[in-house]
Write a structure and sequence with these properties.
about 260 residues, mainly beta, Thrombin, subunit H, 2 domains, eight-stranded antiparallel sheet, six-stranded antiparallel barrel, about 10% helix, globular, carbohydrate binding, sushi
Protein backbone atom coordinates (compact mmCIF):
# COMPACT_ATOMS: atom_id res chain seq x y z
CA UNK A 1 0.00 0.00 0.00
CA UNK A 2 1.12 3.53 -0.65
CA UNK A 3 3.64 1.93 -2.82
CA UNK A 4 6.07 0.43 -0.32
CA UNK A 5 6.49 3.76 1.41
CA UNK A 6 4.06 3.13 4.22
CA UNK A 7 1.99 6.09 3.09
CA UNK A 8 -1.70 6.23 3.73
CA UNK A 9 -3.33 5.85 0.34
CA UNK A 10 -6.56 5.21 -1.51
CA UNK A 11 -9.06 6.80 0.90
CA UNK A 12 -11.87 8.84 -0.60
CA UNK A 13 -12.30 12.05 1.42
CA UNK A 14 -16.06 12.29 0.94
CA UNK A 15 -19.18 10.26 0.36
CA UNK A 16 -19.58 9.73 -3.37
CA UNK A 17 -22.32 11.30 -5.41
CA UNK A 18 -24.36 8.60 -7.13
CA UNK A 19 -22.63 7.80 -10.40
CA UNK A 20 -24.37 8.44 -13.72
CA UNK A 21 -24.04 6.35 -16.68
CA UNK A 22 -16.08 12.29 -20.76
CA UNK A 23 -15.98 11.79 -19.98
CA UNK A 24 -18.97 10.60 -22.05
CA UNK A 25 -22.11 9.80 -20.09
CA UNK A 26 -20.38 10.80 -16.87
CA UNK A 27 -21.39 12.66 -13.75
CA UNK A 28 -19.77 15.22 -11.45
CA UNK A 29 -17.21 14.02 -8.92
CA UNK A 30 -17.83 15.15 -5.33
CA UNK A 31 -15.12 17.43 -3.97
CA UNK A 32 -12.49 15.15 -2.43
CA UNK A 33 -13.97 11.94 -3.80
CA UNK A 34 -10.78 11.04 -5.71
CA UNK A 35 -8.18 13.20 -3.91
CA UNK A 36 -5.24 11.82 -5.91
CA UNK A 37 -6.54 13.07 -9.27
CA UNK A 38 -4.65 16.11 -10.56
CA UNK A 39 -4.82 18.17 -13.73
CA UNK A 40 -1.75 18.95 -15.81
CA UNK A 41 -1.80 22.55 -16.96
CA UNK A 42 0.79 23.55 -19.57
CA UNK A 43 1.90 27.03 -20.53
CA UNK A 44 1.89 27.28 -24.34
CA UNK A 45 3.62 30.65 -24.82
CA UNK A 46 1.46 32.36 -22.23
CA UNK A 47 -1.70 30.38 -22.97
CA UNK A 48 -2.26 28.08 -20.00
CA UNK A 49 -4.16 24.95 -21.01
CA UNK A 50 -5.49 21.97 -19.04
CA UNK A 51 -4.32 19.16 -21.27
CA UNK A 52 -4.30 15.90 -19.29
CA UNK A 53 -4.94 14.16 -16.02
CA UNK A 54 -2.47 12.51 -13.64
CA UNK A 55 -2.41 10.94 -10.18
CA UNK A 56 -0.48 11.52 -6.97
CA UNK A 57 1.42 8.31 -6.10
CA UNK A 58 3.57 9.67 -3.27
CA UNK A 59 4.70 13.00 -1.81
CA UNK A 60 7.05 13.79 -4.71
CA UNK A 61 5.64 12.21 -7.86
CA UNK A 62 2.59 12.11 -10.10
CA UNK A 63 1.86 9.42 -12.69
CA UNK A 64 0.51 10.15 -16.18
CA UNK A 65 0.58 8.96 -19.80
CA UNK A 66 3.70 9.41 -21.93
CA UNK A 67 1.72 10.89 -24.82
CA UNK A 68 0.59 13.70 -22.50
CA UNK A 69 4.11 15.02 -21.94
CA UNK A 70 6.30 13.69 -24.76
CA UNK A 71 5.81 16.74 -27.02
CA UNK A 72 5.91 19.21 -24.14
CA UNK A 73 9.18 18.34 -22.44
CA UNK A 74 9.82 21.58 -20.52
CA UNK A 75 9.08 20.71 -16.89
CA UNK A 76 9.08 24.35 -15.77
CA UNK A 77 6.05 25.08 -17.96
CA UNK A 78 3.81 22.67 -16.06
CA UNK A 79 1.48 23.67 -13.28
CA UNK A 80 0.12 20.65 -11.42
CA UNK A 81 -3.38 21.48 -10.19
CA UNK A 82 -4.33 19.59 -7.02
CA UNK A 83 -7.67 19.36 -5.23
CA UNK A 84 -9.48 20.83 -8.23
CA UNK A 85 -13.24 21.09 -7.82
CA UNK A 86 -14.19 23.55 -10.54
CA UNK A 87 -11.66 23.71 -13.36
CA UNK A 88 -12.65 27.16 -14.57
CA UNK A 89 -13.27 29.12 -11.37
CA UNK A 90 -10.16 27.94 -9.45
CA UNK A 91 -11.65 28.16 -5.97
CA UNK A 92 -9.58 28.82 -2.85
CA UNK A 93 -9.19 25.14 -1.95
CA UNK A 94 -7.18 24.42 -5.09
CA UNK A 95 -3.46 23.81 -4.65
CA UNK A 96 -0.82 24.37 -7.32
CA UNK A 97 2.65 22.85 -7.55
CA UNK A 98 5.25 23.26 -10.27
CA UNK A 99 6.93 20.34 -12.01
CA UNK A 100 10.65 19.78 -11.56
CA UNK A 101 11.41 16.82 -13.84
CA UNK A 102 9.64 14.72 -16.48
CA UNK A 103 10.54 11.10 -17.14
CA UNK A 104 8.92 9.33 -20.10
CA UNK A 105 9.27 5.55 -20.37
CA UNK A 106 12.40 4.85 -22.40
CA UNK A 107 10.55 2.36 -24.63
CA UNK A 108 7.45 4.44 -25.25
CA UNK A 109 6.35 3.98 -28.87
CA UNK A 110 3.82 6.49 -30.14
CA UNK A 111 2.90 4.50 -33.25
CA UNK A 112 1.82 1.35 -31.45
CA UNK A 113 0.99 3.24 -28.24
CA UNK A 114 3.03 0.89 -26.08
CA UNK A 115 4.64 1.80 -22.70
CA UNK A 116 2.49 4.96 -22.63
CA UNK A 117 3.60 5.93 -19.13
CA UNK A 118 5.46 8.87 -17.60
CA UNK A 119 6.32 10.28 -14.19
CA UNK A 120 6.52 13.92 -13.14
CA UNK A 121 8.58 14.95 -10.14
CA UNK A 122 7.10 17.85 -8.20
CA UNK A 123 9.11 20.94 -7.28
CA UNK A 124 8.00 20.66 -3.66
CA UNK A 125 7.32 17.73 -1.35
CA UNK A 126 3.63 17.35 -0.55
CA UNK A 127 2.71 17.44 3.14
CA UNK A 128 -0.31 15.15 3.46
CA UNK A 129 -0.72 16.01 7.14
CA UNK A 130 -0.42 19.76 6.70
CA UNK A 131 -0.59 22.13 3.76
CA UNK A 132 -1.70 19.41 1.33
CA UNK A 133 -4.01 17.44 3.63
CA UNK A 134 -6.87 17.75 1.12
CA UNK A 135 -5.03 15.35 -1.20
CA UNK A 136 -3.71 11.82 -0.79
CA UNK A 137 -1.86 9.30 -2.97
CA UNK A 138 -3.72 6.53 -4.71
CA UNK A 139 -2.59 2.98 -3.87
CA UNK A 140 -0.68 1.08 -6.54
CA UNK A 141 -1.62 -2.56 -7.08
CA UNK A 142 0.38 -5.69 -6.48
CA UNK A 143 -0.38 -9.17 -7.85
CA UNK A 144 -2.36 -10.08 -4.72
CA UNK A 145 -4.64 -7.00 -4.73
CA UNK A 146 -8.20 -8.34 -4.54
CA UNK A 147 -10.67 -6.13 -6.35
CA UNK A 148 -14.26 -5.44 -5.45
CA UNK A 149 -16.51 -5.10 -8.49
CA UNK A 150 -16.17 -1.37 -9.12
CA UNK A 151 -13.82 0.51 -11.43
CA UNK A 152 -14.18 4.19 -12.30
CA UNK A 153 -12.38 6.46 -14.75
CA UNK A 154 -12.12 10.17 -13.95
CA UNK A 155 -11.09 13.20 -15.97
CA UNK A 156 -11.88 16.51 -17.59
CA UNK A 157 -12.13 15.23 -21.16
CA UNK A 158 -14.80 16.14 -23.68
CA UNK A 159 -18.41 15.28 -22.84
CA UNK A 160 -21.32 14.28 -25.09
CA UNK A 161 -21.64 17.87 -26.28
CA UNK A 162 -17.97 17.92 -27.31
CA UNK A 163 -17.20 20.42 -24.54
CA UNK A 164 -14.67 20.29 -21.73
CA UNK A 165 -16.63 20.19 -18.44
CA UNK A 166 -16.06 22.61 -15.57
CA UNK A 167 -16.05 19.89 -12.92
CA UNK A 168 -14.12 16.64 -12.77
CA UNK A 169 -16.23 13.82 -14.22
CA UNK A 170 -16.46 10.10 -13.46
CA UNK A 171 -17.81 7.12 -15.34
CA UNK A 172 -18.07 3.42 -14.51
CA UNK A 173 -15.48 1.49 -16.52
CA UNK A 174 -15.80 -2.24 -15.80
CA UNK A 175 -12.70 -4.28 -16.62
CA UNK A 176 -13.14 -6.35 -19.78
CA UNK A 177 -11.43 -9.41 -21.23
CA UNK A 178 -8.35 -8.60 -23.29
CA UNK A 179 -10.01 -10.24 -26.29
CA UNK A 180 -12.70 -7.53 -26.38
CA UNK A 181 -10.10 -4.81 -27.02
CA UNK A 182 -7.82 -7.02 -29.12
CA UNK A 183 -10.72 -7.54 -31.54
CA UNK A 184 -11.19 -3.76 -31.87
CA UNK A 185 -7.61 -2.47 -31.78
CA UNK A 186 -4.84 -4.16 -33.78
CA UNK A 187 -2.18 -2.63 -31.53
CA UNK A 188 -3.71 -3.80 -28.24
CA UNK A 189 -1.02 -5.54 -26.17
CA UNK A 190 -2.32 -7.52 -23.19
CA UNK A 191 1.12 -7.53 -21.54
CA UNK A 192 0.99 -3.78 -20.94
CA UNK A 193 -2.62 -2.77 -21.67
CA UNK A 194 -5.95 -3.11 -19.86
CA UNK A 195 -9.36 -3.14 -21.50
CA UNK A 196 -12.19 -1.28 -19.78
CA UNK A 197 -15.64 0.15 -20.31
CA UNK A 198 -18.91 -1.02 -21.75
CA UNK A 199 -18.75 1.12 -24.86
CA UNK A 200 -22.44 1.84 -24.32
CA UNK A 201 -22.78 5.62 -24.19
CA UNK A 202 -20.08 5.94 -21.58
CA UNK A 203 -16.30 6.16 -21.49
CA UNK A 204 -13.23 8.34 -21.61
CA UNK A 205 -12.57 10.91 -24.33
CA UNK A 206 -10.05 13.50 -25.55
CA UNK A 207 -8.59 15.30 -22.53
CA UNK A 208 -9.02 12.40 -20.09
CA UNK A 209 -5.61 10.98 -21.06
CA UNK A 210 -3.15 10.38 -18.24
CA UNK A 211 -5.91 10.14 -15.66
CA UNK A 212 -6.67 7.04 -13.62
CA UNK A 213 -8.74 3.94 -14.00
CA UNK A 214 -9.21 3.34 -10.28
CA UNK A 215 -10.75 0.25 -8.76
CA UNK A 216 -12.08 -0.37 -5.28
CA UNK A 217 -10.40 -3.31 -3.56
CA UNK A 218 -11.83 -5.61 -0.92
CA UNK A 219 -9.76 -3.73 1.71
CA UNK A 220 -11.95 -0.67 1.03
CA UNK A 221 -9.15 1.32 -0.62
CA UNK A 222 -8.85 2.60 -4.19
CA UNK A 223 -6.05 1.26 -6.39
CA UNK A 224 -4.88 2.60 -9.73
CA UNK A 225 -5.17 -0.27 -12.18
CA UNK A 226 -4.84 1.81 -15.33
CA UNK A 227 -3.79 5.09 -16.94
CA UNK A 228 -6.09 6.40 -19.68
CA UNK A 229 -4.22 5.83 -22.94
CA UNK A 230 -6.37 5.56 -26.09
CA UNK A 231 -9.72 4.56 -27.51
CA UNK A 232 -11.97 4.64 -30.54
CA UNK A 233 -15.12 6.73 -30.96
CA UNK A 234 -15.70 8.25 -27.52
CA UNK A 235 -18.27 6.36 -25.48
CA UNK A 236 -19.06 3.83 -28.20
CA UNK A 237 -16.31 1.23 -27.81
CA UNK A 238 -14.26 0.04 -24.81
CA UNK A 239 -11.18 2.06 -23.86
CA UNK A 240 -7.53 1.09 -23.47
CA UNK A 241 -5.55 1.85 -20.33
CA UNK A 242 -1.89 1.34 -19.45
CA UNK A 243 -1.70 -1.70 -17.14
CA UNK A 244 -0.06 -0.15 -14.07
CA UNK A 245 0.77 -3.54 -12.54
CA UNK A 246 3.16 -4.21 -15.45
CA UNK A 247 5.15 -1.07 -14.61
CA UNK A 248 5.47 -1.22 -10.82
CA UNK A 249 9.18 -2.06 -10.99
CA UNK A 250 9.78 0.77 -13.48
CA UNK A 251 7.93 3.22 -11.23
CA UNK A 252 9.89 2.07 -8.16
CA UNK A 253 13.20 2.42 -10.01
CA UNK A 254 12.46 5.95 -11.23
CA UNK A 255 11.13 7.16 -7.89
CA UNK A 256 14.04 5.65 -5.97
CA UNK A 257 16.88 6.94 -8.14
CA UNK A 258 15.66 10.40 -9.17
Amino acid sequence: NGFKLGLKCGHSHTKPIQIGANIIGGSDVAHGEFPWQVILNYDFDGQKTDNCGATIINENWVLTAAHCVKDMPEANKYNIRLNVYNRTTRDSTELNVKAKKLIVHEHYNRTIKVNDIALIKLSETLDFNGKHKAVEPICLPNPSTKLADKCVATGIGLNEQGLQPQKLQKVNEPLRDDKVCADIYDIYNSDVDLCGGSGQKGGVCTGDSGGPLQCLATDGLWYQLGITSYGGTCGEVPDVFVKVLSFIHWIEKIVTYN
